[in-house]
Amino acid sequence: MMQTHHCEIDFYIDGELGPDDASAVETELTFSHAARTRFDELWRQKDMLIRALEALDTPSPANRQTARLQANLARAIAPRISTSESSPLASLPPDLH
């Protein structure tokens, strides 16, 4: 029986192996305690990363407040920018405003 390399286990978890290579990894996971331990470690790491990334995407009250402040600021300065002849934007072509 071949010894599965750690990268192959990582590729297996990500679904990046072809059928023959995936089958070989599955066989190794069945019979090798070390391979199964590595698989479990990688699986937990990837799961933690996925949950952390999902938490970053979850809007928090602070993020919503920042978005409201940005929108309010944009509304407040928009009339000043559009009516000001001395604005640096006034000299730019309209498609670059």
Description:
It is a single chain. This protein has 97 residues and is mainly α. It has helices spanning 6-13, 19-31, 33-57, 61-83. It has one domain (1-82). The longest helix has 25 residues, at 33-57. The mean pLDDT is 79.
Describe the structure in brief.
It comes from Histidinibacterium aquaticum. This protein has 97 residues and is mainly α.
Ordered list of secondary-structure elements with their pairings:
Blueprint: H1 6-13, H2 19-31, H3 33-57, H4 61-83
H-E string: HHHH
| Helical proportion, percent range | over 70%
What would you call the shape?
A: rod-shaped
Percent strand? under 5%
Count structural domains.
1
Mean pLDDT: 79
Contiguous uncertain segments of 5+ residues? none
What's the multimeric state?
Answer: single chain
For the CA atoms, what is the radius of gyration?
27 Å
Derived from helix and strand composition plus strand pairing, the structural class reads: mainly alpha
End-to-end C-alpha gap: 65 Å
Main sheet overview: none
> How many β-strand runs?
0
Helix count, per DSSP? 4
Protein name: Anti-sigma factor
Record keyword descriptors for this entry.
71% helix, 0% strand, 97 residues, 4 helices, mainly alpha
